[in-house]
Amino acid sequence: MTPPLIDPFARAIEYLRVSVTDRCDFRCAYCMSENMTFLPKKQLLTLEELDRLCTAFVRLGVRKLRITGGEPLVRRGIMGFFEGMSRHLGQGLHEITLTTNGSQLDRFARSLWDAGVRRVNVSLDTLDPDKFKAITRWGSLEKVRRGIDAAQAAGLRVKINAVALKGFNEDELFDLVEWCARGDMDLTFIEVMPMGDMGDAGADGADGTLRLDQYWPLEDLRARLAERFTLTDLPLKTGGPARYVRLEETGQQVGFITPLTHNFCESCNRVRLTCTGELFMCLGQEDNADLRAVLRGSQDDDVLERAIRDAIARKPKGHDFDYSRSRADGQMSRHMSHTGG
Ligand code: SAM
Ligand code: SF4
Question: Largest CB tally within 10 Å, which of 9, 18, 47, 246?
Fold first, then answer.
């Protein structure tokens, strides 16, 4: 049997997040600029390369795959990739899931279910159609809501991810919570992160402010929730930056993702693959391994597995985000749409 992937700090790597494209049909103000330049197609891993690489990770003990982007569902042929990966379900792989902006879910919900996907995360920051347009620039709230309905009709469990933005969705905190409770959806808030060179980020967004001004600490958000609900901390440990509470009045689960704090590195069980085949061992650090070169340089899976093991051996103990040291236009030079969040 192949020995599992264990990093130098004795953490088993069981979770792979894969960005399958840097392209997107939205232009969220905190994520990319409106005139974003995408990578030439030949730099992206082909669907066959993605399959070979993910299959190697499953052989090495990865139990959970999360497909992300850019917008994963705008990549041509992506459903074939999901169908292909479904052969590993129950054969080492426990779960395939995705994070999506929801714009294509009405088309693909059924096929995702057929490929063994059971849960999806849909990113949605506001329930106001005009604000939705302002923050996503190109998105339609109505279409996303149709997508969520289609996902639920197909049997998929939907979780909503909302980026907490000061002065933008602060006033919708309770509306979002109640809307999710009515729709039987869990809800997770994400603290905004300093990623990528945003150029004019947010300039034509909700109120024209930059992301650093939009930083809404989740501690503050949580305190506001506690004014209306009784919050019970849940011991649910995902190995990631999310912490969960139950709202006793609704029974609903609400999560908080605070990537800027260090409180989760000890249990970190994940690595991230970009759409160009770089493996990032930590979201907050620049060190990465070029697995595309390995994939294209050899058809030998032993060579590939060795390269993956060598990369995991470099996984750092913790990350290094710090707003105080960041430039206003973002500390990390890569975009979330490249790394996949
Ligand atoms: N396009 C898909 C979507 O929006 O769900 C998947 C990719 S997107 C990069 C993944 C997640 O990252 C989304 O929930 C998005 O809101 C979040 N995100 C993007 N930029 C962010 C930032 N600067 N800070 C925090 N979260 C961010
Ligand atoms: Fe696209 Fe997701 Fe980035 Fe929005 S957050 S621009 S939907 S990749």
Answer: 18
Q: Bridge partners of 109? A: none
Question: Per DSSP, what are the bridge partners of residue 281?
Answer: none
In this structure, whether the domain defined by 15-339 belongs to CATH 3.20.20.70 is answered with yes
For residue 197, how far is its CA from the centre of ligand 2 (angstroms)? 15
Ligand 1 atom nearest 30 alpha carbon: 23
Residues with Cβ < 8 Å from 157, sequence gap 6 or more?
118, 119, 120
Average pLDDT across each block of 10 residues of the chain; the chain has 341 residues. List them in order: 86 95 96 94 97 98 97 98 98 97 98 98 97 96 98 98 94 97 96 62 43 78 96 83 91 88 77 96 87 98 97 85 42 62 64
Please tell me the pTM assigned to this model. 0.92
Q: Which ligand is nearest to the CA of 192?
A: 1
Q: What residue ranges do the domains of the chain occupy?
A: 15-339
Residues 6+ apart with CB under 8 A from 63: 14, 15, 92, 93, 94, 95
Ligand 1 atom closest to the Cα of residue 163 is: 16
Best mutation site among 20, 25, 163 for ligand 1, i.e. most ligand atoms within 8 A of its Cβ?
A: 163
